[in-house]
Structures
1.
Amino acid sequence: MRFLSESSGKRIPCYRVLNENGEIITGSDYEQLSEEVSVKIYSNMVSLQMMDTVFYEAQRQGRISFYLTSAGEEAINIASAAALSADDIILPQYREPGILLWRGFTIQEFANQCLGNKDDYGKGRQMPIHYGSKKHNFVTISSPIATQLPQAVGIAYSLKMDRKDACVVTYTGDGGTSEGDFHAALNFSAVTEAPVVFICRNNGWAISTHISEQFRSDGIVVRGRAYGIRSIRVDGNDVLAVYSAIHAAREMAISEQRPVLVEALSYRVGHHSTSDDSTKYRPVDEIVYWKMERNPVNRFRKWVERNGWWSEEKESELRSSVKKQVKVDRIFHISIFFIA
């Protein structure tokens, strides 16, 4: 008689390419990025960062009713988007606006949705940050946690039946994996062999619930094997690692017609939303450390600069351009128009 141990005793390793100084780790296996793509990724990360700052402040001023940021998780947003095709269908949770930004959604379109004005594609029927775009294959965000996961499997199975050269990519946080829909989706996808990539942003917190109070397993990655799904753990603050992992996961999902699970380790630097004060349940020093020392935007900038593709002059030009786009008085000038 022999019982399986509750733990292997060794943690699943985390795939990394860049160290904290933006240097390639010796022996790293990764997808090469061109100057054009690298600069676009960095520019989008900065744009997302600046948009978040302005929109968050707009909520505090009473211009919009609700907002949440992607602070600390910009690499997962933009790098994963860069690794996908425009034909791939996205089912997001609510911290993935960077994917829309990468695909061409404008800052004014983000503002329209948050305002719920006449130019909002949802005509004010959704609360702020619940973006959606048929044009960009981005299924509208819904508030209930993890409901998008089994839906993603269904859509992926339809792509499989139609023999499409595309996959479905769906996102969730670590808190979402505590929902029954997460487990149903993984099992459903494994049995149907659906071309779907599950990306879990393990940022340490499900609002105020730390991961130590959510599960006893070695994170999320080990759950893939339990359902017969190929899986990988990646440093979610490392642009090159995220890009390479998602690029490979997409190829597997389409060419082998199988689901893949990616656990991206990161940290939620901002509050969960404008309805939360995270300093009530985690130390300020911890937040500052991740914001300053483990910042994914700063890390990638060092790598881009090291390649000679970026400079202080270009940085100044970029921030000046984005600042004009996110100028509060310009993007929030339209009166709120709610549908009764």
Note: Residues 334-340 have pLDDT under 50 and may be disordered.
2.
Amino acid sequence: MLLSLVLHMYSMRCVLPAAVLLGSAPTYVLAWGAWRLLSAFLPSRFYQAVDDRLYCIYQSMVLFFFENYTGVQILLYGDLPKNKENIIYLANHQSTVDWIIADILAIRQNALGHVRYVLKDGLKWLPLYGCYFSQMYLVIFPEGTRYNPELTKVISASQTFAAQEGLPVLKHVLTPRVKATHVAFDTMKSYLDAIYDVTVAFEGTMDDKGQRKEAPSMAEFLCKECPKIHIHIDRIDKKDVPEEQVYMRRWLHERFEIKDKLLIEFYDSLDPERRNKFPGKSVNSKLSLKKTLPSLLILSSLTAGMLMTEAGRKLYVKTWIYGTLIGCLWVSIKA
């Protein structure tokens, strides 16, 4: 009985973060909507500045749970970002946590409010957030879908396609697609500084036989089942990126060949001392509570205050319902 209770409590560790993150969604959407209306007749730069700040507040709260709450250790390798830049972030895709990794790097450059994502079409239909996320860009996962070692048919199809196209076959990543990367680069190149080629590995994703297993989901991550995240960064100046799509396709595949070699070293190295880490020196980067706790307190307090009155509760529920419907309608119109 006691053991069952302990196991049940262990599995419920993700409930509090999920409740706070989802529960504060209407508060965030209301704040954003109010500012959108108030700023309608102001110069766009005023709207953008506050919009970025609101987004930064919410994402900082997200990082409170994904970093401070879980206690995960962040190990950085390669070209460590120092100054804020206009970038395209290219990364391998293996988990629903991957978009958090972009936030983890952005907050260390004081650029969290500026992070935008390229997401699957299906994610545009998320309640409240889908409409907002569907307009975002910069963070790109060129594989198009998550790499899962248990989905052998997906991996085999990706490897077969690469072989048919005369491209090197990859083991720990899928064959990348160039379209989103090319469109983003072509659109942003006039004010882009660099591309960050980011390779991510979650420690604890090897089974007893030494085989790679599925990366942690959001729920598993919030249950503190990932002790360390290893992040390797290559900064590529925009002048070193080919502009023509046909050449960029080859360049992008070469970048994923480099990722694959890093991951082969991480998962498959014959030397146990070289496994579970990337080559080179790592930096243990700890996120200060000063950057995340204030956002948690602000949004939680505003949400609690709204729920304490009948009028506030009605507004809260209506925001969930009508916000979702309006967002879906907007996505349908733009589709």
Note: Confidence is low (pLDDT under 50) at residues 1-9, 121-135.
3.
Amino acid sequence: MALLTDLINLDLTDATEKIIAEYIWIGGSGMDLRSKARTLPGPVTDPSKLPKWNYDGSSTGQAPGEDSEVILYPQAIFKDPFRKGNNILVMCDCYTPAGEPIPTNKRFNAAKIFSNPDVAAEEPWYGIEQEYTLLQKDINWPLGWPVGGFPGPQGPYYCGIGADKSFGRDIVDSHYKACLFAGVNISGINGEVMPGQWEFQVGPTVGIAAGDQVWVARYILERITEIAGVVVTFDPKPIPGDWNGAGAHTNYSTESMRKDGGFKVIVEAVEKLKLKHKEHIAAYGEGNERRLTGKHETADINTFSWGVANRGASVRVGRETEQNGKGYFEDRRPASNMDPYVVTSMIAETTIMWKP
């Protein structure tokens, strides 16, 4: 008799041409990922060849009950690490039946910015450091922490190894491999300063692909934690007090910054970010004021600062970039729950399109 695991792992390729496509979208809170699956007649590699689909927006906080249909437009395809074979994950964005982007569709505006000729000519590269915290199910307390109590103070956990310092590595490593399998340009992982907290990096990616890939990497992580019976939170400060928060540091460069003499372009871009500090902070994630306190490797939320190799600044320029006279910089302000479509496009808009 077949076991459940045998059936879950059934390879369909010998039995049928048909494939399963899991359509993924962002729900009404702006952080809740939703997905559902459909059968397609055969393998697909081009998102424009995929059918549009719809869902009940009144059940996701995105449409009223009397006019609840929201249309999914497929935008990016990834290999499905859960079903394997020719099956796919499809990142979608959301529209009304009349073809208007719904208010929570942040990809639409980002794609407009990235297709601006000035932005496209600069080929903006992004590397996003996504931090997150693993929680014990039902009690919402970090993995590896004693129930109702606290572990020893921070220090031994960052990039730590051993059963008393590293909690959830099986989840992290499964996620790493699943992302590589899917075609997400995940470039690394590490344990973070607070026990139970981890980070993965996505990049370098160009333009709108940065947002697509971070969202799909988050989706894969949520699916793996579901299997493991663990909860993942992207809250920027899951535990108050003397514990590090969680961010999504965004590394950024343009063609002009990567060329000789690029350091001057970096300084000009950072000065523009300083002038728009308030607008950026407002769009960089909810609850960020609990994280950006000026402590725990952060800059104070109300003050813009930048420096070379300074992890307590709003924007950090690497020592190597300074020495080479070209390279990239790191915006350290985005919270772990930021929308990568918003953050990546806003940085491009401010540094390339905006002429103060």
Note: The longest strand covers residues 125-136.
4.
Amino acid sequence: MSAKYGLVGYNSSRKHISISIPSSTEVMSPHIKSVEELRVLGINLSNLSAPTQFFICVAGVFLFYLVYGYLQELIFSVEGFRPFGWYLTLVQFGFYSMFGLVELQFTQDKRRRIPGKTYMMIAFLTVGTMGLSNTSLGYLNYPTQVIFKCCKLIPVMIGGVFIQGKRYNLTDVSAALCMSLGLIWFTLADSKVAPNFNVTGVMLISLALCADAVIGNVQEKAMKLHNGSNSEMVLYSYSIGFIYILGGLLCLGGLGPAVAFCSEHPVKTYGYAFFFSLTGYFGISFVLALIKLFGALVAVTVTTGRKAMTIVLSFMFFTKPFTFQYIWGGLLVVFGIFLNVYSKNKEKMKLPTIKDVRSWLLMRKKVRFLSQNV
């Protein structure tokens, strides 16, 4: 069997690394384990109670992604680094590829399942999402970037209307409207108080959102159709994306200045970038585990809370101008996210009607009246 799949080198000596590609006629065995066998970073969550599983996943999401956001803003706070957002993305893709390769060696089935053409498209979208997002920090405050990331629903709905001819209910439209108004409010506030605000940053993060809205659907379809694993997806999409970015930087002449700058500040660039990439990779693992164990509703709630905490910590740890318009714009975005989650989970989230609220108020008034008479 090992000779058939080209794993002789791996079985005879554990020191060798091998990745084999199956033929089209071979039957694919399931790779993604069930929830009962779920492991995250080597931690077996299957034998733990549900509250313990939830606590570990939430702690992992908050811990790693808060450190991730802090390190990302810390890197761009290095004087002179702002023009090198694409080089940071190149380094990040390189680290993600290595992490994916290492994780793949701990799996029994190392065959690539998803076609190369699909990975080329996913890699292109991933480059657009992360590259444009990192580059936008050269023009925007970090909280503004995070607020934009919370509003993925807007490009998803626009694409659904014009590409697939979808129709959305009043709740979805209201959610998109709240997010849009919140974004406008937050961006206008940023343009008034932020000294480094630039419309280019808004365009970059908006394009990153559009690519992010597409990539989720493509990844989900590819993994379900071909039964690919998370480690395989990370390895191939980020390694191909690494080649894309490297070629772009070489053609545009942006590689030399970035390498020269980072060589002068290796700890503040490569050192921070390593831990930035590592915490991001770990955070993804806990988010996926949260979705598998408790569903998308809980995962969205937790990640939204994490983003809110990231914005608060950003104002605490990094000196930047503040205005209360940030709060009102942010609350509108959060309310839009709540409406979006409620629209998809109406059966699980039964909100009280006006009649229920009225009955409750009358009952409370009656109880208060009786207690006063007694």
Note: Residues 7 and 18 are 7 Å apart (CA to CA).
